[in-house]
C-alpha cells in the first residue's frame, strides 16, 4: 500500500451524534492522499459502530479499538506510533474541517519546508452547528513563540505537524499531562523549528457548555501554568514575577486583570521583532486586548481604543465579523 502524505489522527471516547459528521468532513477533503486513523478509547456508545462503518466503505480509514480506556494522551501517542504519513493532521471527534483544509495546509508547508507545525484560525459552533464565535490565533512564527509564554497558540483540532518532529525529536505527547498535552508538545516543537498559523478559518470548533467539569477546568489551568512557566523561564528569563502574574491572569480569564501589567508584559515579549513580525504581534496584542475588554466592563472602552491603535484595520474587521454574527 502506498505511503500517504498525511495521516489524519482522531481519538474518540463516546463521540455520540457528532462523530459521523466529523468523519464525513475528512472524507470530503479535496486533498485525497491521506489515511485516517481513529483511535477509539473503549467507547460505550455507538462510536465504534459508526467508525467501523466508515472504515468498511473507505480503505483509507482505519479504526484502532482499545479494550480498556487509556485516556486521550495515551491514545494520541498510540495513533502517532501507527501513523505512516510524514504529516499529521489532528481533528477532534466533535469538530469539523473545511473541505479545503488539508489542501491549504499541505500547500503551505510544501512552499515553506522549514515549518514543523501549521495550525489555523477557526469558527466556533454549537451543538446545532450554529456559528457562536470566532477564534483568532497568532500567525507568524515569531508571534506564536512569544504567545506560548502564557497561552496555547494553536488549536489542537487544527494542527498539521511533522511526525518526525513530534515523535523522534520531541518524544510524542507527555503522558504526565491529561488535558494540556498538546500545549506541552507545541512548546517543545517551537524549540526545534518555526511553527505558524493560517488566518483562514479552516476548522469548526464545537463549543459545548459543560463539556469540561470544574475538576477538569482546574486540571487544565494547573497543567497550563506548569507548561507556561517552564517555557517562559527558558525563553524570557528576564520577565519579572508581576508581568508573569498578569499573563497568568489573562490565561485563566481573571476579570481583575491589570491592563497596565498586561501592556508591560506584551511590550517585553514584543521587543526586538522585525517589521513584519512586529505588525503581527500588534495584531495579536489587539486580539488579546479585546479579550480583556470582554472580561471587564470597567476597562472595555479604554482597551478598545488601545486595540485600535495597535491594529486599526484588523480591529475594524474583527468588530465587523462579530457584528455580522448577530
Q: Class by helix and strand content?
A: alpha/beta
Can you count the beta strands? 9
Low-pLDDT stretches are none
What's the CATH class of the largest domain, please? Answer: Alpha Beta
Helix content: 40-55%
Question: Any guess at the CATH architecture of the largest domain?
Answer: Alpha-Beta Complex
The ordered H/E elements are: EHEHEHEEHEEHEHHEHHHHHH
Share of residues in strands: 15-25%
Our Rg estimate from Cα atoms comes to: 20 Å
Number of helices: 13
| Sheet with most strands | 9 strands, mixed
End-to-end distance:
49 Å
Count of separate structural domains: 2
CATH homologous superfamily placement of the largest domain: Spore Coat Polysaccharide Biosynthesis Protein SpsA, Chain A
Oligomer: single chain
Q: What is the averaged pLDDT score?
A: 89
CATH topological fold name of the largest domain: Spore Coat Polysaccharide Biosynthesis Protein SpsA, Chain A
Give a structural overview.
The structure is a single chain. The protein has 13 helices and nine strands. By secondary structure, it is of the alpha/beta class. α9 (241-251) packs across α10 and α11 packs antiparallel against α12. The longest helix has 22 residues, at 214-235. It starts with 5 loop residues before the first strand and ends with a helix.
Chart the SSEs and their pairings.
Elements lengths: L5 E7 L6 H9 L6 E7 L6 H11 L3 E5 L6 H11 L4 E4 L5 E2 L3 H11 L5 E9 L5 E5 L5 H7 L12 E3 H7 L11 H10 L4 E12 L7 H22 L5 H11 L7 H12 L4 H21 L4 H11 L1 H12 L3
Parallel strand pairs: 1-2, 1-4, 2-3, 6-9
Antiparallel strand pairs: 4-8, 5-9, 6-7, 6-8
